[in-house]
Amino acid sequence: MDILENSSLKDFNTFHIDVSARFFCQFNTVENLKEVLSEKKTENYDRLILGGGSNLLLTKNFDGLVLRNNIRGISITNEDKDHVYINVGGGEVWHQFVMYCIENNYAGIENLSLIPGSVGAGPLQNIGAYGVELKDVFYELEALHIRNKTKKTFSNAECKFAYRDSVFKNEEKGKYVITSATFRLNKQAKFNTAYGAIQKELEAMGIKELSIKDVSRAVINIRRSKLPDPTKIGNAGSFFKNPEVPKEKYEDLKKIFPDIVAYPQVNNVKLAAGWLIEQCGWKGKTFGDAGVHKNQSLVLVNYGNAKGEEIYNLSQRIIDSVFERFQLVLEREVNII
Fold this sequence. Notes:
By secondary structure, the protein is α+β, with helices and mostly antiparallel strands. It has helices at about 30-35, 95-105, 120-125, 155-160, 200-205, 210-225, 245-255, 275-280, 310-325; strands spanning about 5-10, 20-25, 45-50, 55, 60-70, 75-80, 85-90, 130, 130-135, 140-145, 150-155, 175-185, 235-240, 245, 260-265, 270, 285, 290, 300, 335. It folds into three domains: about 5-70, Uridine Diphospho-n-acetylenolpyruvylglucosamine Reductase, domain 2, CATH 3.30.43; about 75-185, Uridine Diphospho-n-acetylenolpyruvylglucosamine Reductase, domain 3 (2-Layer Sandwich); about 235-335, UDP-N-acetylenolpyruvoylglucosamine reductase, C-terminal domain (Uridine Diphospho-n-acetylenolpyruvylglucosamine Reductase, domain 1, Alpha-Beta Complex), CATH 3.90.78.10.
């Protein structure tokens, strides 16, 4: 295994932040991973696992070992009359996996089209979009313990999924590398088009007989119209979570702000963080090479050579201003290193 020293991470994070890692290594198999974890020269250093680097803000050089997951492979492991179970390597690109499912008419993740990042990072964040979350189709995953190099299988329940959250962001944080995940997809589609602008986009597309490919195309069209391409403008997608509040709190806010954008949930109400940020005047603002995207206030961007610390400080100013106006605390969705 090649372990690089003092290696730039600029090409391995979608913000394109130019910081370096004390050690850097890419692994293609579980055996490769075990090998590099056993290296004596890195054993006393912190470890950071990278997939697509799409939900990450690097604010400084990493004085440790950065491991990039390149484990590939997509295979059907089981099926019944209603479902197909698909095992996917942690290093597979998420959107390419979605496209594989759509081409084979396996339904359930079409609403999650064009989300950047790798399959292995998906469970960590419980990625979601347009009314669907990863947990809705997730079956189990395999992970390798970083310190003792033992393999463990986590069920859906053991992952403790919540809104943009999982056990891997809490009690198991930094302890495991997710090497593969298995998803349970539907053979018959159950369409979810009520969230956001999907139905409107489908109508604009002139769709008469709905398919999962149509839903995927609609989602891709919407995302491309709102979100900057990270290969052209550095960003990590949505930087903040949509805050959830009790219904009583929402009703109080609505009396003061009648146009507030919200999505009713079972026990509470989810507020549109982008709307809150926009009301505070941040949309399209730039500060050097750091800024808020002109089409979507949820997205912070690096227009060239912004430092991670500059983007972090901008996010804190946004959090402070939203709290001052709405008495709501925004949480960052991206992982800060």
